[in-house]
Amino acid sequence: MPPLTGLHRREALRLLGAGIALAAGGCSRPDEEILPYIRQPEQLLPGVPARYATALPLSGWARGVHAIAVDGRPIKIEGNPLHPGSRGATDVFLEAAVLDLYDPDRSRAVGERVAGIASWEAFGKAYARPLSEARARGGAGFRLLTGRITSPTLLRQIAALRAAMPEAAWHVHEPLDDAHARAGAALAFGRPVRILPRLEQAEIVVCLEDDPLGPGPDQIRLSAALMERRRDPSRFGRLSVAEGLPTLTGIKADARRAMAPATTGALLVRLANGFGAGLADPALPEAERRFADDILADLRAHHGRAVVLAGEALEPAFHALAHWLNGRLAAPVDGIAPP
After folding, report:
1. CATH of the domain at 281
2. I need a labelling partner for 12 at 20 to 30 A (CA). Which of 29, 49, 127, 286 fits?
3. Together in a domain, 322 and 199
4. pLDDT tens per residue, range 272-318
5. Containing domain of residue 68, as a range?
6. Is residue 3 domain-resident?
7. Does residue 17 lie within any of the structural domains?
8. Domain count of the fold of the chain
9. What is the pTM of this model?
10. In terms of C-beta distances under 8 Å and separation of at least 24 residues, what long-range contacts does 196-199 make, across chains too?
């Protein structure tokens, strides 16, 4: 075996340079033609992020945000500090909303159950026959499933579709729905009303199966309002929660009681009777009765600065009773027309 010879400095540099050139060549992008804009889009500079104000809906409610895009591709969503729905912050839904605008893993072709990847032309041909048959029947058997829609353009298009096919059915579903709350408001006010509590003005907040700090279109506003009140040491404040399952609001509660929704409804009846509702006195266990009496004392001592919130686990009649109780309390709440 011949003896090993030392590597001279010049040879080492030559080998290092060859390795760098090989690596750079292997990692370079493929050749492609780059064409300049004939008409430069307004406020678009290559490689420079563009920030613009827009709104993103959740359960039919729009929340103002700032969208950041690079070369026309959205990369980040931030809250709009001038919009009351986001107040400069985001939640998990807004953070994930960028994937609704652009997702590199999303399918870019039409899928077919048997053949797999298809084309839009194939989809149009396969869809034309059943659509024409549905039109011939006046829309009978045609089903349209959407979320809650507030877009005037899309609502106008759906109205035109239903006018052309009057027998078609339109189903609206939202994963974060408030059907009981809407029905309860209709019972209490005679029309659909969306209640917006002003938690920053409430010193006593009672949540009965309600989670204002949890997922929902008003999560950011309510969370910020509650924390603003708690940061003021000169103000009294108590958050009381009765719930069947742990929630974010229950974790932050000053007083929390775990109970079934049926028991929570009975607790609400006892609170309402304390303000003259005149309902049949419910049978409550001793511990729950003491819990209700403590809440009742807080409500009586803070007229105009207390609010009672009912959640979706309670029936519409209990929501209506909570609205009646808030009226007796002069609770800091606003009512708006729902979408």
Report:
1. 3.40.228.10
2. 29
3. yes
4. 999 998 899 888 999 999 999 999 999 999 999 999 999 999 999 99
5. 50-101
6. no
7. no
8. 3
9. 0.76
10. 196/333, 196/334, 196/335, 196/336, 197/222, 197/307, 197/309, 197/331, 197/332, 197/333, 198/225, 198/332, 198/333, 198/334, 199/225, 199/226, 199/229, 199/307
